[in-house]
Design goal:
The chain is of the alpha/beta class and 439 residues long. The chain contains 16 helices and 14 strands.
C-alpha cells in the first residue's frame, strides 16, 4: 500500500558561491493564521535562529532539509513510514527550506504543502504511459541546456538545483544527477546559438531554479541576452517567491530592473502558499518593473476543485500576480499519483468562467508528449457551427445564436485559409469539434 493510499484511508550548502491550512476541503481566509503558525514553528524547531538569519535566503538555502532523518524532526514517522520514505528518497531525493516547511499543518495528513514535498511510495509505481522526459526536451535541445521547440523562443536551462524538490516536477529525471550548474563555456554556446538565429525573440531562463544562481552570475546572463538585438523579452521561471521569498531582495530587484522587459513566471499551487512574505516578494518584483504571472499544476488531492482554484486565483490577483496557466500534470515517471482526468481541469475552468472576473481565470493547458507543444482546452461552449452561424452555450447554460460573417478568411502560418471544419481534421482528429481547442 502506498503512502498516498494510506493517507486516503486515514483521513548543500550554498553550492554557487553567492556571497493557511486546508482541512476537509476548506481554506483559511488570510495569511495571519499561517504567520502565527510560522512563528510557532520557529520557536519549536529553530529557537536560536535570529530574524536576520531566518530572513536571509542564504541561511534558508544552506539549512534545507534533505534527508528522512531530518524530516523525522518535524513529523512523527513509524518505522515503516521511515523505511518507505528512505527508499523513495534514494531514487527521488528530497529538499525543503525551513520557511516552506513552516507552512505545513503537521496535524493534517493531507496538508497541501506537505503533499508537494514529502516522498511517497506512489512515486515508485511507474505507469506505462509515463516516462522520464515526456516533453522530449532532450530531443529538442540544440546545444546542451538550450531547448528550441517553438519558432521564436527558446528555454535556457542554467541549473538543476532548486531550494525545494517538488514531487510533481517535470524535470524530475535530473535529480539523479546531483546538483549541477552549466559551465560558462556551455552558457556561451547557448548564447552563440541565440545570436545566430534572429528568429528568436523570446528567451525563457529556467532550471532547476535559475534564482539559485548568485545575483551577479544571473546578471551576466541577462546582460549578454540584452546585447542581442533580436531578443525582445526575457522570462524567468522560478518558484522562489513561493518556497523561499527571502531571495527576492533589493539587490536582485535592482539588478532585474536594468534589463527589462523581464517577465517572471512563478508557481503557486495552493492558497496556503500565499503568505505575507511571498506577497512582499511579488510586490518588490512588480515595483522593479517585473510583471509576475503564475503557472499552477493541477494536482490530485491538492488543488483539484473549483473552490480551491478560485481562492488561489483571487489571492494571486490581490498579490499583484496574474493567473496565467493551469497545467495538466505532465506524464512524468514518479508523478502518476498526482494526475487528474482532463475532465477535472475542464470542469474547473467551467466553474470559474463567468462566475469570477476573467483576470482570475487561467488558461488550462496540456503540454503534449514528445514535444508536441502546449494547447489550451476549454469547455464545450460551441454546440454547433454553420457557415453563417454558431450555436453557443454561455456559462449559465443559455443557448445563443451568433452570426458568423460569411466569406471571412483567417490567415494562418502554414495554410492560406483555415476554417473550423478543416482544423477539426488535422492529424486525423475527426472529433475535434466536440471541444474548443486553441493552440
Amino acid at each position: 500500500m502506498t503512502t498516498t493510499e494510506k493517507n486516503e484511508n486515514k483521513q548543500s550548502d550554498d553550492p554557487l558561491g553567492s556571497g493557511a491550512v486546508e482541512t476537509c476541503g476548506k481554506v483559511d481566509d488570510e495569511p495571519p493564521s499561517r504567520l502565527n503558525q510560522t512563528k510557532k514553528f520557529r520557536l519549536k524547531y529553530f529557537p536560536k535562529v535570529s530574524d536576520q538569519d531566518w530572513n536571509d535566503w542564504h541561511w534558508q538555502f544552506k539549512n534545507r532539509v534533505t534527508s528522512v532523518a531530518e524530516i523525522a524532526r518535524f513529523f512523527h514517522l513509524s518505522a515503516e513510514e521511515y523505511r518507505d520514505m528512505d527508499s523513495v528518497s534514494a531514487v527521488f531525493p528530497l529538499s525543503a527550506t525551513p520557511y516552506y516547511l513552516s507552512l505545513i499543518d503537521f496535524d493534517n495528513v493531507n496538508d497541501p504543502v506537505k503533499l508537494q514535498l514529502m516522498p511517497d511510495t506512489a512515486e515508485l509505481c511507474f505507469d506505462a504511459h509515463c516516462c522520464s522526459d515526456p516533453l522530449g526536451e532532450e530531443h529538442s535541445s540544440v546545444v546542451p541546456g538550450l531547448v528550441h521547440r517553438y519558432p521564436d523562443r527558446v528555454v535556457m536551462v542554467l541549473t538543476d538545483i532548486c531550494p525545494v524538490l517538488c514531487r510533481h516536477c517535470t524535470r524530475k529525471r535530473e535529480w539523479k544527477n546531483g546538483g549541477w550548474v552549466h559551465t560558462q563555456a556551455e552558457i556561451d554556446a547557448m548564447l552563440a546559438y541565440i545570436r545566430q538565429n534572429p528568429v528568436i525573440r523570446d528567451v525563457i531562463i529556467s532550471g532547476g531554479d535559475p534564482l539559485t544562481l548568485s545575483t551577479s552570475r544571473l546578471e551576466s546572463v541577462l546582460s549578454a541576452l540584452r546585447s542581442v538585438p533580436h531578443v525582445e523579452i526575457i522570462r524567468i521561471g522560478t518558484r522562489y517567491p513561493v518556497v523561499l521569498p527571502q531571495r527576492i531582495d533589493d539587490e536582485l530587484c535592482n539588478m532585474l530592473s536594468k534589463y527589462g522587459p523581464i517577465w517572471l513566471n512563478t508557481h503557486y499551487n495552493h492558497p496556503n502558499e500565499i503568505t505575507e512574505e511571498s506577497r512582499r516578494a511579488c510586490d518588490r518584483l512588480v515595483r522593479a518593473g517585473v510583471p509576475v504571472n503564475n503557472q499552477s499544476v493541477l494536482l490530485k488531492g491538492i488543488n483539484d476543485s473549483v473552490a480551491i482554484q478560485k481562492s488561489l486565483c483571487h489571492k494571486l490577483l490581490m498579490s499583484k500576480v496574474r493567473p496565467y496557466y493551469l497545467f495538466q500534470c505532465d506524464n512524468v515517471q514518479g508523478t502518476e499519483h498526482f494526475h487528474t482526468t482532463i475532465e477535472t481541469g475542464v470542469g474547473i475552468i467551467e466553474g470559474l468562467r463567468g462566475y469570477t472576473s476573467g483576470l482570475a481565470v487561467p488558461n488550462y493547458v496540456i503540454d503534449l508528449p514528445g514535444g508536441g507543444g502546449k494547447i489550451t482546452v476549454q469547455p464545450d461552449y460551441v454546440l454547433d457551427k454553420q457557415a453563417d452561424e454558431y450555436i453557443i452555450r454561455n456559462y449559465k447554460g443559455d443557448i445563443i445564436r451568433f452570426k458568423n460573417p460569411v466569406g471571412h478568411k483567417v490567415l494562418g502560418n502554414n495554410v492560406n485559409t483555415v476554417n473550423v471544419k478543416t482544423a477539426a481534421k488535422i492529424n486525423g482528429e475527426a472529433n475535434a469539434n466536440r471541444a474548443v481547442i486553441r493552440s
